[in-house]
Structures are given as structure tokens and as C-alpha cells.
Amino acid sequence: MAENKLGKEYIITQVKVDTNKWDSIPSEKEIQETIKNVQDRGITVHLVKNRKEALEKIKQLIPQGSEVMNGSSTTLIEIGFVDYLKEGNHGWNNLHESILNEKDPKKQSDLRRKVDTSEYFLASVNAIAKTGELVAADASGSRVGAFPFTAKNLIIVAGINKIVHNLDEALQRLREFAFLLENERAKEAYGMGSMIGKIVIMNKEMFKGRTTLILVKEKLGF
Q1: How many domains does the chain have?
Q2: pTM of the model
Q3: What stretches of the chain show up as alpha helix (H) in DSSP?
Q4: CATH number of the domain within which 71 lies
Q5: How far apart are CA 76 and CA 80, in angstroms?
Q6: Are strands 134-138 and 198-202 parallel, antiparallel or unpaired?
Q7: Residue-range definition of the domain harbouring residue 52
Q8: What's the pLDDT tens digit per position in 19-38?
């Protein structure tokens, strides 16, 4: 069987990263401390056991007929969300599909900007600080542009392996682990590397109920 060169396990074999430091499973006490501190920053948290439960929680959170857009995310692929969205049996308005159907590069770029205002935007983050901050980065900003304000509802899905002690470590995890793996993935997928172009730190959510973190008790994503 051919190796999946876009899969996390293969990519880790190609890049020197400290998986013991940046991809480990925290204790139950650390998980609960993180949840409390994230919630104290105005973000709703749902703790689920596995990727299957994560996908079911998404289905529960998004009403039929809603506009749905997602940023590029290994985590969303791993929990089955991307395939579920492509199947088309969800009853949502899949804005990602409209972008892919547009073949004119300029019009497609314009659409990508507009869909940041979707009713529901789904993505992941690169690190979660036990102190409550969420950190996400992207080359162009298309994955994180909706985070601060434009999306009406933001749903973030992340594995507990992304939990670190504080904001400094969250930024360190981004640079020393997540970016290096994403850079390698981009080379395999697009023939060119990535970069840390835009960084978003979710420090405090002032709009009650807008941002939700689905925290999964598995190792997921970069």
C-alpha cells in the first residue's frame, strides 16, 4: 500500500520535530484547567471523546439551511467533516463548493473574501494555551480571516494534543511544530512551501455564544 504523503504520520517522518514536547496528551487535570480558562474568555467548550463524537457535535450545532464555510484543516479532514460536507446530504448551504466551482482566479479570490462572513465558519487552531488563548496561523489569511469578527458563528475543532502551558508556548508550538509540518504538507500537496503570514490570537470573545471550541480527546492535526 502506498504511503499517504499528506498524512500526519508520514510528514512527521520527513521533518525533525519534538513530538514528545509538542504532540503529547495532557492529564485530565490539565484538560479541565484549560477548559475553564477558555470558557472564562467567553468561548463555549464541548469536550468529546473522539473524532466521531466531534463530527456528531458539529451536526448538532449547525441548523439545517445554514451557510457553512471551512478553512483548510487537517483536523477537519481527520474527523470526517470534509468528506461529509462533500457528500451533500447535510442540508446546509456549502459555500466552499461555490468557490471550487468558480474557475476564474480573480472571482474565486473575491468569493473567498466574501464567505468569511458566513453564518458558520469551521476551522482548527495550532495551539491552545492552558491559560485560555487560542492561536492559529495561515500563509494568506484565508483560513483565519473569519476568526476575529466576520463569521457569525465560529466553530473550532482541536485535539487535546494542542494544549500547551501558556501563550508563549502556544506561539512556540506554532513555529517549532505546526508550521514545519504544514510547510512539508504544502510541498507535497502544492509543490511549494508555506509560511507564517498571519497569526490570530483568540484572547477574549465579547459576543456570547459566537465562538465554540470542540475539544477532542485524541491526537488530531498539526
Answers
A1: 1
A2: 0.94
A3: 8-14, 19-22, 28-40, 51-61, 74-78, 81-87, 95-101, 105-114, 167-173, 179-190
A4: 3.40.50.10420
A5: 6
A6: antiparallel
A7: 26-216
A8: 999 999 999 999 999 999 99
